[in-house]
Write a structure and sequence with these properties.
The complex is a heterodimer. By secondary structure, chain A is an alpha/beta fold. Chain A has helices spanning about 40-50, 75-80, 100-105, 115-125, 130, 145-155, 175-190, 200-205, 225-230, 230-235, 250-255; strands spanning about 1-10, 15-25, 30-35, 55-65, 70, 85, 160-165, 195-200, 210-215, 220-225. Chain A is about 35% helix and about 25% strand. In chain A, strands 6-7-8-3-9-10 form a 6-stranded mixed sheet, with helices on both faces. In chain A, strands 2-1-4-5 form a 4-stranded antiparallel sheet, with helices on one face. In chain A, strand 7 (about 160-165), helix 7 and strand 8 (about 195-200) form a beta-alpha-beta unit. The longest helix of chain A is centred in the last third of the chain and has 18 residues, at about 175-190. Chain B has a two-stranded antiparallel sheet with strand order 1-2.
């Protein structure tokens, strides 16, 4: 459904961030994109959603395809209209708007504005907490509530693909679990395809169907969740596990595993 | 007492026009974080166009007014497109410098086309004064107030409930996030410049009807900046209330203090402004940075 082929992204015409990135997001699935800081995960999402432009970045090679159509180089608004919606990293709710106004802003590109009311109710169905906060100014919500609002705002656009950039950022573990279970629920009930970028590999792989691991601007490993979970490198570097359960610090010192994919 | 009420009414009317022009400042500031120093020239152009349509082309006032609004809206669009769009993403200070340049340019154009002598609008509103108890008010004042109040109510609702209004406020909050909603930031900028030009030209036409028209009217722009600062540069209700406060203060100072110290009328609003800003640096209703603790 969504396909990146050998995509290269450059910022300011000099900084090469994505170096031949290829991945595929099949319809109706949840795909997790994992990687450490600076691997290029967020840049990948921005390349898809067209937000690169406002940061002086551009796709310099390769192409991005959505439902058979090339979308690289299009404006963000056009891409949202086609059904790809990115929930940006760090929640980014409109602080001085109320919860409900935030949701309405999310539906900006929708043509059928008559259904706005029922769509807002639909968001409240997934996030009942937002309903009790509906007329509160979003800036005063807690982090978890803001993240719910950010995802709810995405739902308002009725996207075919929802791009989530680190929904777990800065949230308590319990909340992280709650939000991810709602993401899973949205995927099942709405049939929304989801591409989720995470540092928290554990939680992301718990709901995903397929995973990609990214390092240094390209994909180094991909596979079904079961495959990734059984891969020694992933266990060691992303899940913090090794063959014999938890490692002692002494072992870490004496033996450092080399990544096999390098 | 009658004198006091008389001054109060004058203040409210002038203040309402200030409020309208201040709304123009606030809109542009909210959208792009820049202060538009050409606001006064927008007002000047609006009032001259309307005057020309009425006197030279003999068009009835209401039609001329509508044409003026359309023209101002277009002017706002064009200026945003040609002069300011290249500054998107550049430091705000360059955009502000551009508006200063723009104000000189527009002032020059107005001067070339219309010269500098004061002109007066033909009689548009009836001249039998309206009596409110002991206070005698000229109909121009009453009509100005009505028109401004309608416009202010309209824009308040517009920003609260309309799709574009919400998009504009969203963009003011977080441009990138707005972009990710599919909100066209360029469209938001263009609409704010257009609305800003429209409200200024309404203010210009009303003031022109009250005081006559000449190029020094552009100074109103400078005078209204404190209004916007007082109310909070990014607050629409603030602009409205700030307008009334400054209008009334100015009129009161003119009535009571001017006979004692000549010209103090012009200064009093600024003194009050400084005092208020000392205690409320964001202005009366300016949004404070929301910080969650």
């Amino acid at each position: 459904m969504l396909r990146l082929n050998n995509v290269e992204v450059m910022y300011d015409r000099v900084i090469l961030v994505l170096k031949g990135m290829s991945m595929e997001v099949p319809r109706g699935k949840i795909v997790a994109l994992l990687g450490s800081n600076g691997a290029g995960k967020t840049t990948t999402l921005k390349a898809i959603s067209g937000l690169l432009k406002s940061e002086n970045g551009q796709v310099t090679d390769g192409y991005i395809e959505f439902e058979g159509q090339r979308i690289d180089g299009e404006d963000a608004e056009a891409i949202v209209k086609q059904g790809i919606f990115q929930c940006m990293e760090g929640r980014r709710v409109f602080e001085h708007l109320t919860v409900e106004e935030n949701l309405i802003a999310g539906a900006h590109t929708r043509k059928d504005r008559g259904n706005l009311k029922s769509d807002i109710e639909r968001v409240y169905h997934y996030f009942p907490k937002l309903k009790t906060l509906r007329s509160r100014v979003a800036g005063y919500l807690s982090g978890g509530e803001q993240q719910m609002l950010a995802i709810g705002r995405g739902l308002m656009a009725k996207p075919k693909v929802l791009l989530l950039d680190e929904p777990s950022l800065g949230l308590a573990p319990l909340l992280v679990r709650e939000i991810f279970s709602i993401i899973k629920q949205i995927n099942e009930e709405e049939g929304t395809t989801i591409l989720v970028v995470e540092q928290n590999a554990n939680i992301a792989l718990s709901i995903a169907d397929y995973g990609y691991i990214m390092e240094n601007g390209r994909i180094v490993l991909e596979g079904t969740v079961d495959y990734l979970l059984s891969n020694e490198d992933v266990r060691e570097f992303y899940l913090g596990l090794s063959e014999v359960g938890k490692k002692s610090y002494r072992d870490v010192k004496s033996y450092k595993r080399r990544k096999r994919w390098l | 007492m009658t004198f006091f009420l008389q001054m109060l009414v004058t203040g409210i009317v002038v203040g309402s026009v200030y409020a309208l022009v201040a709304l123009g400042f606030v809109l542009i500031y909210k959208a792009s974080d820049a202060i538009n120093f050409a606001q006064g020239e927008f007002l000047l152009i609006g009032t001259y166009i309307c005057l020309t349509l009425i006197t030279t082309y003999q068009i009835p006032f209401l039609v001329a007014m509508v044409l003026t609004l359309v023209f101002s809206g277009l002017l706002g669009f064009v200026i945003e497109r040609v002069v300011l769009r290249p500054f998107i993403g550049e430091p705000v200070i360059s955009m502000i410098m551009a508006t200063i340049g723009l104000s000189s340019l527009l002032a020059g154009i107005v001067h070339i086309i219309w010269g500098h002598e004061t002109r007066v609008y033909p009689q548009i509103f009836p001249d039998t004064p309206v009596r409110l108890g002991e206070v005698v008010v000229s109909p121009v004042y009453v009509w100005s107030l009505i028109i401004v109040l309608i416009l202010l109510a309209f824009f308040t609702l517009f920003f609260k409930y309309s799709k574009i209004g919400i998009a504009m406020r969203a963009t003011a909050d977080d441009q990138q996030a707005a972009l990710s909603m599919g909100i066209s930031v360029k469209m938001v900028f263009a609409v704010s410049w257009a609305i800003s030009a429209v409200v200024s030209s309404v203010g210009g036409v009303l003031l022109g009807n009250i005081n006559g028209v000449n190029s020094s009217m552009a100074l109103i722009g400078l005078k209204v900046l404190p209004v916007a600062l007082l109310g909070g540069l990014d607050s629409i209700p603030g602009a409205i209330i700030g307008g009334f406060i400054i209008g009334i203060l100015e009129s009161m100072a003119g009535g009571y203090l001017d006979p004692i110290i000549g010209g103090v009328k012009e200064v009093v609003p600024f003194i009050v402004l400084v005092l208020i800003l000392m205690f409320k640096p964001y202005g009366l209703f300016g949004k404070e940075e929301i910080e969650r603790v």
